[in-house]
Amino acid sequence: MALILEGLGKHFENSEEATLHEINLTIETGEFVCIVGQSGCGKSTLLNLVAGLDKPTSGKIILDGEEITGPGADRVVMFQEHGLYPWLNVIDNVKFGMKLAGIPNDVQEEKAMHYLKMVHLEEYKDYPIHQISGGMRQRTALARALTLDSKVLLMDEPFSALDKQTSNILREELQNIWQETKRTILFITHSVEEAVYLSDRIVALSPDTGKIAGLVPVTMPRPRHVYAPEFVEMRHQILEIVRGKTI
Amino acid sequence: MSIIIFVVILIAAWQFFYWLSVDMLELCKSYAVPSPIGVAERFADLLSDGSLLKATGNSLLRGIAGFAIAVIIGVIIGLLINHFNYLQKNLKPIVLGVQTLPSVCWVPFSILWFGLSTKAILFVVIMGSAFSIAISVDNAIKNILPIYTKAALTMGANKKQLYTYVIFPASLPELVSGLKQGWSFAWRALMAGEVMTTSIGLGQTLIMGRDLADINQVMLVMLVIVIVGIIIDKCIFSVIEKRLLKKRGLAA
Ligand SMILES: Nc1ncnc2c1ncn2[C@@H]1O[C@H](COP(=O)(O)OP(=O)(O)OP(=O)(O)O)[C@@H](O)[C@H]1O
Ligand SMILES: [Mg+2]
């Protein structure tokens, strides 16, 4: 059992055509799935539907047998902009979700420290958010998301506002964390390279029709090397799909 | 420091013009123009007989009491307007309109309803500031970055948690500026209310100065009103505001 999207569609009231059309997708527990597509193709829309922040106009989303009706801690989202609270320091931000869940303080502290270590931020735990770098902020947001043991981790271009070098380091770390914690991750990116690097499976959205243009399993062993011939080949293949050249 | 020098220069200029227009050229009568020395003398008189302190204390107490009630009412109206779409559409324009009324406009009502009493003054103060506070509360909440609430919702926040852990702290800096503005309205409304009654206060001392044709007392009371207003603004609201912004890395 896992996350199932069934005939999912979204048609915004004020737009002529549906943004998403008949999306069918099953994501298995523990799977790392990336959704790629050009800007404006509906990636964030899809993620918001799964997050429960927006409602589909057709179809449904089922998580572990239950239909999704609204946002919840079983589907934590990590956004492109970190979404951390500037009135809290690093560790209090990490504890935020646990505080909402009413988890005892000592457990909060222990878990927060555990994940802060995992993202290499334990030394910065008392820093205010505005005194840490963009990369550290995304690490903090990741630690915060991890503390909630959600069934699916939703990530909407979490590294795309960072410089290339930082974003490469973070995707490597994310991969290690994923292998260590065995989470189910639905990851959105416009970077095909990032998708090929991270995914078990890539969902390519078509640029115009709002449909899935291709579903490509990635079986290369990890860690992957972006200059390996297979990698380059796959990257090229997916780029073609994303650009709408082959169906 | 530079402001102190500037004020000293202003006072010197004031004394010079008084001397020029009243003593030298005899353009104005001395009872129509206040002088720094005259004001200082009145200040010493009213301070030594305790009446100035009493009037300032009374006014401050009334101002604070009225402001406190206005905050409660304003916050409730603001929250309701913000929360219910229907009120946002229909009540907010009315609140916005009423908020533009100068506070003296509430004086006739307050006298008819409460007579020449402290209650009447409080009524004017409340009416003069509650609506502006309501509008600031609504705006402060609207200006919260949507990602703050989105993030909280996807972490499982319920309505109550959303308000206490996200909406309240996120809007706090803007809320404090709204309260600061609300206070300045309250303080002005207070004077509008006080000049109509006979209960001891700065407004009444001001009117007494007029009745006694004591221009120096009038000037003195005006200065005290300004200074108290500045002190509360700078020593309370601005300090809190700066601290909040600094903590969030937003202070200049
Ligand atoms: N609330 C909304 N109302 C109307 N149209 C919307 C709304 N949100 C998104 N859209 C439209 O839906 C389409 C998809 O937007 P979406 O944000 O999902 O794209 P995206 O793939 O995430 O793009 P990007 O890579 O730039 O983030 C766009 O054409 C956008 O204009
Ligand atoms: Mg997007």
Plain-language structure description:
- The complex is a heterodimer of chains A (247) and B (252).
- Chain A has seven helices and ten strands.
- Chain A is an alpha/beta fold and 247 residues long.
- Chain A has two domains: 166 residues, Rossmann fold (3-Layer(aba) Sandwich), CATH 3.40.50.300; 66 residues, no CATH class.
- In chain A, the strands form two sheets. A six-stranded mixed β-sheet of chain A has the order 6-7-8-3-9-10, with helices on both faces.
- In chain A, helix 2 crosses helix 3.
- The model of chain A has no long low-confidence stretch (mean pLDDT 93).
- Chain B is an all-alpha fold.
- Chain B has two domains: 33 residues; 214 residues, Orthogonal Bundle (MetI-like fold), CATH 1.10.3720.
- In chain B, helix 3 packs across helix 9, helix 8 packs antiparallel against helix 10 and helix 9 packs antiparallel against helix 10.
- The longest helix of chain B has 36 residues.
- Chain B is elongated, with a radius of gyration of 22 Å.
- The interface between A and B is medium-sized, with 27 and 22 residues.
- The site of magnesium ion has 3 residues of chain A, from helix 1.
